[in-house]
UniProtKB/TrEMBL annotation:
Keyword Acyltransferase recorded: no
One Gene Ontology term of the molecular function aspect: GTPase activator activity
Region (Disordered): 86-174
InterPro entries attached to this UniProt entry: ARHGAP6_RhoGAP, Rho_GTPase_activation_prot, RHOGAP6/36, RhoGAP_dom
Domain of life the protein comes from: Eukaryota
Pfam families reported for this sequence: RhoGAP
Domain Rho-GAP: 207-408
Name of the protein described by the UniProt record: Rho GTPase activating protein 6
Protein source organism: Oreochromis niloticus (Nile tilapia)
Gene Ontology biological-process annotations: positive regulation of intracellular signal transduction; signal transduction
Record field: compositional bias (Low complexity): 131-152
Gene Ontology terms: cellular component: cytoskeleton
Length: 444
């Protein structure tokens, strides 16, 4: 063990490349460091990713059961629901698409599709505590029922069918390429059996030793891709008005789980309005209510500390919030790169879209970072303090857009803290993680 630990030179890595287990432990390490090394003048609370949402999901699922007899009613699949639920719905959508492509649909299989979604929602919101992890977790397995699970938005190629069945030990995972590792993760997170045994229930609660697939809502990724392809040179993108009727129609199509393909026929202004609407209507803002004051107070720190603390606060976010924020900031940075007039290779002037990082932060900041949707009465109280907070919100997001790539990297010292923390509870897991890091890092 000593030899294997000494031989691995840790390099900065993207947070998305860490395993689910490492990301969960990174939350704890970042939480401790924020308390020990920085004084933000406020209480820092870990964002809730399970208990609070579980209750609201249960209520929604109870109402789903009551409404099942009313065919006219439908439960929104994308808008005004918790982000973790949107991700679960998207996963169910991909699973149904894969099943449809591989096997002709049969009515009996699809008449209870709402039950499939409900089951996945209940399963996807279970978040284990570290106490439930044990060294036995070094063995990963999946049930044959999940063989049709899709890989991820980034890896449409299916792995060989022989790879999809039966159990796999950690050692054998090192032989898989990236696509197959993602497939294994998708298999692990897919729908559990209808009547799982106690042993299977315990196994479902484990955190994976592989990176989890990118948790970005389909509607967010589709909108970003559309504007990146068709709207980067559109003057006043996000400021110019849109067609409320067309935006409402698009919203309803995503909410009904329709496979919407945003092509050049759609107005970039309508798509931009849809993206803003999705973020605005999240029950909990993307940067979470719990971290509102902490993010605001980073503006009181010097520039270097601002970035370090913002990075630690991002580590506290649930994976779906972190991954979605990364995709959004990457997109906003690309839009800002086209803000000013430029010349093409032939010397022709290309008009800029005028949307600088500051302009984009002014539009998106209040949707990403707020305490709660307050009443009009509350807005009239302490208006000067609110104005200051609004300015701080914009400043926080503007800085994030400018430095988003660095924010989502995990430096070696923090990786080391994560591994040392895991070493106390799961030494065999650390050996596996180090072997994988060694195989991914360049040779000395």
């Amino acid at each position: 063990n000593q030899q294997s630990r000494r031989s691995v030179r840790l390099m900065p890595v993207a947070i998305q490349s860490l395993s689910e287990l490492e990301r969960a432990r990174l939350q704890e390490v970042a939480f401790t460091r924020l308390h020990q090394d920085y004084d933000l003048g406020c209480q820092i609370t870990m964002p809730k990713d399970g208990q609070k949402r579980k209750k609201s999901l249960r209520r929604k699922l109870d109402s789903l059961a009551k409404e099942k007899s009313k065919d006219k009613e439908f439960i929104p699949q994308a808008f005004s629901i918790p982000l973790s639920q949107v991700i679960a719905n998207d996963r169910a959508h991909r699973q149904r698409q894969d099943s449809f492509r591989q096997d002709p649909p049969q009515r009996e299989e699809h008449k209870d599709s709402s039950d499939l979604v409900s089951s996945i929602l209940q399963f996807a919101t279970k978040r284990p505590s570290n106490k439930e992890l044990s060294s036995s977790n070094s063995s990963l397995s999946s049930t044959s029922e999940t063989a049709n699970e899709s890989t991820s938005p980034n890896t449409p190629e299916a792995a060989p069918r022989a790879r999809r069945r039966g159990g796999m030990s950690v050692d054998s995972i090192t032989d898989l390429d990236d696509n197959q590792s993602r497939l294994l993760e998708a298999l692990q997170l897919s729908l559990p059996a209808e009547t799982p045994s106690k042993k299977e229930k315990h196994r479902d609660k484990r955190l994976s030793l592989n990176p989890i697939y990118r948790q970005v809502p389909r509607v967010v990724d589709s909108c970003c891709q559309h504007i990146e392809k068709y709207g980067l040179h559109t003057v006043g993108i996000f400021r110019v008005g849109s067609s409320k009727k067309r935006v409402r129609q698009l919203r309803e199509e995503f909410d009904r789980g329709i496979d919407v393909q945003l092509d050049e026929e759609y107005s970039v202004h309508d798509v931009a309005a849809l993206l803003k609407e999705f973020l605005r209507d999240l029950p909990d803002p993307l940067l979470t209510k719990e971290l509102y004051t902490a993010f605001i107070n980073t503006t009181l720190l010097d520039s270097y500390e601002q970035q370090s603390v913002a990075q630690l606060l991002i580590y506290l976010l649930p994976a779906c919030n972190s991954d979605t924020l990364h995709r959004l900031l990457e997109f906003l940075s690309t839009v800002a790169d086209h803000a000013h007039d430029q010349q093409d290779k032939d010397g022709q002037e290309i008009t800029g879209n005028k949307m600088t990082a500051l302009n984009l932060a002014t539009i998106f900041g209040p949707n990403l970072l707020h305490k709660q949707k307050s009443t009009d009465k509350e807005f009239t109280v302490q208006s000067s303090a609110r104005a200051e907070e609004s300015t701080a919100v914009i400043a926080v997001l503007e800085k994030m857009i400018a430095s988003y790539q660095a924010l989502f990297m995990v430096p070696p010292d923090l990786q080391n803290e994560v591994l040392m923390s895991l070493l106390e509870t799961d030494p065999d897991v650390v050996d596996y993680l180090l072997r994988r890091k060694a195989s991914q890092s360049p040779s000395p």
